[in-house]
From TrEMBL:
Residues the record lists as 4-aspartylphosphate modifications: 51
Protein known as: Response regulator transcription factor
InterPro entries named in the record: CheY-like_superfamily, OmpR/PhoB-type_DNA-bd, Sig_transdc_resp-reg_C-effctor, Sig_transdc_resp-reg_receiver, WalR-like, WH-like_DNA-bd_sf
Domain OmpR/PhoB-type per the UniProt entry, residue ranges: 127-225
Entry keyword set: DNA-binding, Phosphoprotein, Transcription, Transcription regulation, Two-component regulatory system
SMART domains hit by this protein: REC, Trans_reg_C
Length: 225
């Protein structure tokens, strides 16, 4: 599995990286919540091992932001906190499982594999396919198709198509797309959304078919169902 460890205790993170690496996993490490969010946008992870207490943004906040952006990859919350209230907070934020550290790497490995099996996922694929008309999007595989033809999309184009497909039939405002795709909590003065929509629209139409994206002035964009 391709795993992301999010842990601000660098000694513990390194020990866990070595132990899980010895179990044939590919490991990346982030030490803050914002760094973890950036890492998820830059790589296709199979699961996240997430510390509950982090600087800048705690683990629960990281999970909430991931789920808001549409990321469904399993999250195992790993922390020194064992109080029920802390566990409930993490799980309600969107974490899939919760263990108190130190936990053996073999148990973490087993729990992650159980989470993947429970979702019907293999290590490199998922059952998270989104459909909008003749368009299919698999966030887990980071792949998209139109009428059975693979779409060659840049990262932002893929994120934009994923968000539009997730809400196909409904309009999304530019501000909503800025937050969910770019991760900004403000609307830039540039027309970056419009530019990415134009680029995505060209690629969708290049493989055949009518324009599947509806633009409503003053409102936003919608992907046809």
């Amino acid at each position: 599995m391709n795993l992301l460890i999010v842990e601000d205790d660098e000694g513990y993170a390194e020990a866990l990286r070595l132990e899980l690496g010895a179990l044939d996993h590919r490991i990346s490490v982030a030490t803050t919540g914002p760094a973890a969010l950036t890492a998820v946008e830059q790589d296709d992870f199979d699961a996240i091992i997430l510390d509950r207490m982090l600087p800048a943004m705690d683990g629960a906040g990281v999970v909430r932001r991931l789920r808001e952006r549409g990321h469904r990859l399993p999250v195992l919350m790993l922390t020194a906190l064992g109080r029920s209230a802390e566990k409930v907070d993490g799980l309600e934020a969107g974490a899939d499982d919760y263990v108190v550290k130190p936990t053996p790497a073999t148990e973490i490995d087993a729990r992650l594999r159980a989470l993947l099996r429970a979702r019907g996922w293999a290590d490199d694929s998922g059952d998270d396919t989104l459909r909008a008309g003749d368009i299919l999007v698999s966030p887990g595989q980071h792949r998209a198709w139109r009428d059975g033809r693979v779409l060659d999309l840049a990262k932002l184009e893929f994120g934009l198509l994923t968000e539009l497909a997730r809400h196909a039939g409904s309009f999304l405002t530019r501000a909503m797309l800025i937050e969910r795709v770019w991760g900004y909590d403000f609307e830039p003065t540039t027309n970056i959304v419009d530019a990415q929509v134009r680029s995505l629209r060209r690629k969708l139409m290049a493989v055949g078919g009518d324009d599947p994206i509806v633009t409503k002035r003053g409102v936003g964009y919608m992907l046809r169902t």
